[in-house]
Amino acid sequence: DAGVIQSPRHEVTEMGQEVTLRCKPISGHDYLFWYRQTMMRGLELLIYFNNNVPIDDSGMPEDRFSAKMPNASFSTLKIQPSEPRDSAVYFCASSFPQGAYNEQFFGPGTRLTVL
Amino acid sequence: RKEVEQDPGPFNVPEGATVAFNCTYSNSASQSFFWYRQDCRKEPKLLMSVYSSGNEDGRFTAQLNRASQYISLLIRDSKLSDSATYLCVVNTAGGYNKLIFGAGTRLAVHP
Q: Which residues of chain B neighbour A31 with C-beta distances below 8 Å?
């Protein structure tokens, strides 16, 4: 069974360019999460969706970041315009609610470098 | 103060050693507790959930002390393959699905 799929795996872009990261959650999972990981700040939750609806976007750093989930099998995280400080590994994760202990399954991540 | 605090390590231990990691959390309303494992340049993966009564999975034992807001992970008989970063994870008041990850404790097991 396929896990969470993310693309691209690596992205190198120049400051000011638009970046779009893509995620396909595990089939049947109702929740989808976008995280960002850096050495300085660790793993941070940016936004999460339930049944394609954004529930909490309080972790989105600023208006340059936006996320969508048009259907149950696809989500995007967009950065426009990108800045060098956006360089990080972006993880997508999904889960199926099982009460208080919901395992989140992470994708392999997208390593973003903004020059 | 960070919501979840861990000793960053690294812990360098020989094979066969017993090693313990500690974690403290600040939100007394938290109800879900986990240890995730992250290998170098890989994604985090669930190692084990941490229940109030404590729980064990093979060589791994997790303990929770709600009064002290403290979580621990004990690894017995360390293997080379245990080398990784161990992330302490707690849910926030935002619900079971909103998790806060500690910065991680790095473990290096050597021959």
A: 97
Q: Which of B73, B70, B65 is nearest to B49 (CA)?
A: B73
The reply to whether residue B101 touches residue A43, judged by beta carbons under 8 angstroms, is yes
C-alpha B110/C-alpha A63 separation (Å) is: 46
Band of pLDDT at residue A1, cut at 50, 70 and 90? low
Residue A99: predicted pLDDT: 75
How far is it, in rounded angstroms, from Cα A36 to Cα A47?
A: 10
Report residues of chain B scoring pLDDT below 50: none
Q: Given an 8 Å threshold on Cβ–Cβ distance, is B43 in contact with A43?
A: no
Q: Are the CB atoms for A3 and A92 separated by under 8 Å?
A: no
Q: What is the DSSP letter of A103?
A: P
The C-alpha angle A65, A70, A19, rounded to 5 degrees, equals 30
Q: How many residues does chain B have?
A: 111
Residue of A nearest to B99 (CA): A45
CA triple A96-A99-A101, angle to 5 deg = 80
Both tokens assigned to A84: 């060098």
Probe site for chain A from B48, B99, B106 (most A CB atoms < 10 A): B99
Place of tokens 């245990």: B82
Length of chain A: 115
Closest-approach residue (CA) in chain A for B49: A101
In 3D space, the residue among B41, B20, B23 whose CA is nearest the CA of residue B33 turns out to be B23
